[in-house]
Design brief:
The relative contact order is 0.08. Strand 1 and strand 2 form a beta hairpin. Helix content is about 45%, strand content about 10%. It starts with a strand and ends in a 6-residue tail after the last strand. The protein folds into 3 domains: about 140 residues, no CATH class; about 70 residues, no CATH class; about 80 residues, no CATH class.
Amino acid sequence: MPHSFLNYIFLNAEEYINGNIQREILIHELAHVRQKHSWDIIFFEIIQVLFWFNPFLFIYRKALLLNHEFLADDAVVGTNNDVGSYQRLLLEKIGQQSSSFITSQFKYSITKQRILMMTKTKSFRNALCRQIAVVPILGISLLLFSTKINAQETKKVEESNQMEVQSTKEGITEEQLSEFGDIVSSIMNDKGRPAFYKLTEEKRNKLERLYLLMSKEQQEKQLVVFRLAPEPLPKSTPSQDQIESWKDSDMYGVWIDGKRINNTELNEYSPADFDQVFVSKLEKNAVNYGKHYYQVNLMTKEYYENYNKKMKESGNKYFMGYRMPQNQ
């Protein structure tokens, strides 16, 4: 069968020399070449290799090839204006064998649809209306299938806090470093992390005093560190839309007053019940990453009042923490 691929039209040499190939066939194949249908087919074959699991691609490929034939048929009809003779030619070629699946062929399996398409009266107004109708359909689809996520902007912790921690140029002695290390060693747990609850107030103050007397270089080598205590979190009340979005357990993990809750428990609360909300995005190395992707921390009015009071009464200029090893 005559067929085309890229810039080439393939014909039976003997039939071509003897003039047995109809002019309509040549016009049809030339339309495939001029409209670069081969590139569409190659591109779609690549897409199918990558997304072979998508069943809709096979349906779309069939529609794409049929559209190629409609366009090539239109080129033939537009040239000779004899629709009837061209339709009879198509019927004559139905029984002939197909060529490669990747080429554009004169004979295509859905001949009936091609013949029906030629008999339709083309209307520019109808075509324009159909194209315009796509716009509201796309808009409605976006509304139906979109998901609303209310995310609260989180503030970055200023790294300058680390630079403002007190230190000295000369540092502390080896004996003092050893004393600091002994206290830290005495509170280490089985996982190699400091258990601060084991510290007495006296030892905690001793660690802070020694740490602030260290040089910057000495501080950077310690497992237990001190940082400037943050200001109390300001009051913030969530909206009802935010509370509704946080009920999605696949996206959000929710804590109220420091305790993890089931997302459905938010049905029992209203925005007025909370005085503080903080939403943070989980990093990929977080323990719960994959179970949810945002962590929501909420404080009820009573809990926030006690938290704020403790922060102001503590009087601690520094808070104590530990340096996470890089391999963790």
